[in-house]
């Protein structure tokens, strides 16, 4: 292999060049991630799970270096386990976020992990924390990270609303990820969502053929499904294309 | 007093035939002979009150502190050997600071007191150390609400609605049992605490000072000295109540 051309995989470490998205809504939180893991142009896993459980109602969305974020998630899960055994209480989302942040900050020379800590606890309800590379911690109403997130800041800024319903929030997260997957080569495959509302954790898996396609001027591909949470415009567009008998060979 | 534990009381690592560790019991005596300290847990917070005998006219008023701040949301009143109490209070400060650094939130009261109990207990295990001759009354207001704990020289840590330690503890506890603490505000409890301390003080002619602190909704959930005007009013009421009961006699 000619190393001088393939600079992006000179280190040959798998990267979750990724899109991760999370937002609060009235009554809880929704978090989501794409499924692509790649080394350069080779997709090592097209349906990976980038959402790691830290506690019963606390999850970590991982982006950056895959091994780094896996180790961080394992360690934080262990620390949360220990402190909840000592205190006899469920850990709070803030505690989990702080632990992730401390690992990022204290090891900033060695780690490349951009993560979202998202969860629900009985003291603060649904919460979203951004824990990017370097060791910042920021509590937000919504957060996005990963390579694909650069393409959807405009969408997220303009479409996010306070106090959305659960369906609106799930649709916002899913559509943001689908849009990023359209433009970012390092994001793609499948979409995974988790919704937390204090009553439980609801997992949704959207397989590749069910991911909404944003094809712009191109004719709508035959056989592809409309958006699962029922975005009316996409359904209409698909119907029109089907009626016109458009087929991509 | 001498001869009680003859032979079995020389070290903390020796049991007596009837299952006591005399060194621990003697440490408890140090607390029992100190001036009275009491704590009241009310519906909106906790009040700590300590009686301080003024040993010399040369002492600056307010010196010789017996109530310490551990964190914004935790305060500790010491009964027994004051320097011993200071060591334990410093440990509590350490625990609270390191917990906040790691977990990002104020240390919960029950976690702090369990750790403090374990720490104090350790000094009952080794021949080369002596038990702390101090009981800590811990007032805390955390995410689970207000709570009062007592950590004694044996290392046991118990949670109370109201309690007293020191010379006047029996009489004080009798008075505390008459109070309906669950319906009382901290403002009202300050007056009651001062009244009780004046009542159980039996050092005729000896001047004494009161150190009173609270942590409640009114104090912004922060542990602090009771406002000077409230304390002055409480002292006035206490002295009036004593005169009334003197007249009845």
Automatic annotation (TrEMBL), chain A:
CDD domains: proteasome_beta_type_6. The keyword Hydrolase applies. It is found in: Nucleus. GO terms for biological process: proteolysis involved in protein catabolic process. Its main location: nucleus. Its EC number is 3.4.25.1. Residues 229-242 have a biased composition (Low complexity). It is an enzyme of class 3 (hydrolase). GO terms for cellular component: cytoplasm; nucleus; proteasome core complex, beta-subunit complex. Keywords: Cytoplasm, Hydrolase, Protease, Proteasome, Threonine protease. SUPFAM superfamilies: N-terminal nucleophile aminohydrolases (Ntn hydrolases). The active site is at 18 (nucleophile). PROSITE patterns: PROKAR_LIPOPROTEIN, PROTEASOME_BETA_2. It catalyses: Cleavage of peptide bonds with very broad specificity. GO terms for molecular function: threonine-type endopeptidase activity. InterPro entries: Ntn_hydrolases_N, Pept_T1A_subB, Proteasome_sua/b, Proteasome_suB-type. Residues 229-249 are annotated as: Disordered. The keyword Cytoplasm applies. PANTHER family: ATP-DEPENDENT PROTEASE SUBUNIT HSLV, METALLOPROTEASE TLDD. This is proteasome endopeptidase complex.
TrEMBL record, chain B:
Residues 8-30 form the Proteasome alpha-type subunits domain. Transmembrane segments: none annotated. The keyword Nucleus applies. It is found in: Cytoplasm; Nucleus. Pfam families: Proteasome, Proteasome_A_N. PROSITE patterns: PROTEASOME_ALPHA_2. GO terms for biological process: ubiquitin-dependent protein catabolic process. Gene3D superfamilies: Glutamine Phosphoribosylpyrophosphate, subunit 1, domain 1. InterPro entries: Ntn_hydrolases_N, Proteasome_alpha, Proteasome_alpha-type, Proteasome_asu_N, Proteasome_sua/b. Its main location: cytoplasm. GO terms for cellular component: cytoplasm; nucleus; proteasome core complex, alpha-subunit complex. The keyword Cytoplasm applies. Keywords: Cytoplasm, Nucleus, Proteasome. It comes from the Eukaryota. The proteasome is a multicatalytic proteinase complex which is characterized by its ability to cleave peptides with Arg, Phe, Tyr, Leu, and Glu adjacent to the leaving group at neutral or slightly basic pH. The proteasome has an ATP-dependent proteolytic activity. Belongs to the peptidase T1A family. This is Proteasome subunit alpha type-3. It comes from Astrephomene gubernaculifera. The lineage of its organism: Eukaryota, Viridiplantae, Chlorophyta, core chlorophytes, Chlorophyceae.
